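Lecture notes, unit on binding sites. The following record was shown on slide 14. It pairs a sequence with guanosine-5'-monophosphate.
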Amino acid sequence: MKPPQQASWRFPEDLLAYFQPEYSINQQKIVGIEALARMRDASGQILSPDSFIPFLDMDERRELSRLMLVAGLQVLESLDALGIFLNLSFNVDPDFMVDHDCATCFTGTMATSPIAPSRISLELLESGDFLNRDIAKERLLALRATGVRIALDDVGSAYSSLLRMKDLPIDKIKLDQGFICDLCAQPKNLAFVQSIQLLANTLNAELVIEGVETLPILDAMRALHQDHVQGYAIARPMPADALLTMLQSGY
Ligand code: G
Ligand code: G
């Protein structure tokens, strides 16, 4: 349901694409980027998705995802030209997947780009009803058939899909940052990371640890033999030009 007050921005005119790097501890370099939506309001303030996605209807949310995909593909093309080859993740509202065949929504956009679909992950929140629906497996298989990878986002934030996960085609699991942010305060979260790693191994999926906010947490992930991480310790979400500058400076 839409919030009652009128928002001080226009979609899609005021939409911005930000990008947060995904880092490989083993390779010691950035290996991917996640496209994250932002909105510039009338006062020039940059809003996060929680402040504007609830105002968007389902068609607008699909367009939001498509525009983030377009922006991400453009960044990958610019980086390819510089000899920097990264993967891209973008977010899709799982509720949208209940009634729509996303495979046909995004293939047209991907076909316009030289970037191989295998370099693109479509991220779905673990919460929401979609994953528990009978249609989920069929929809995800259709998407996978287009060559894109399927990532499950914020895993551990919702009670839903542990049982469902084993039946679904999932290539990548992103552990919710809630488990990582207070890692030092709650050492038992370390055991949780290891359990999720076992789950990822069982599913033959890659694990990405989100919310790696500080260097001690990054060290803890290294000690746990984790590889792919995302968080403020590496870099905050940023506009494309800042990302290109950072990567060109040899980060
Ligand atoms: O960037 P930030 O941490 O504020 O994002 C909060 C959440 O908003 C993310 O976890 C992500 O799930 C969601 N989000 C970001 N960009 C998009 C988008 O383009 N589409 C959808 N549906 N959700 C997004
Ligand atoms: O869709 P996803 O859950 O991946 O979105 C990630 C969100 O988490 C982004 O909105 C980003 O701003 C936020 N984020 C990314 N890294 C960190 C971090 O290290 N700490 C905190 N608190 N938030 C982060």
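Take-home: The pocket of guanosine-5'-monophosphate (ligand 1) is lined by residues 36-37, 48-49, 53, 61, 64-65, 68, 91, 93, 125, 153, 237 (CB under 6 Å).
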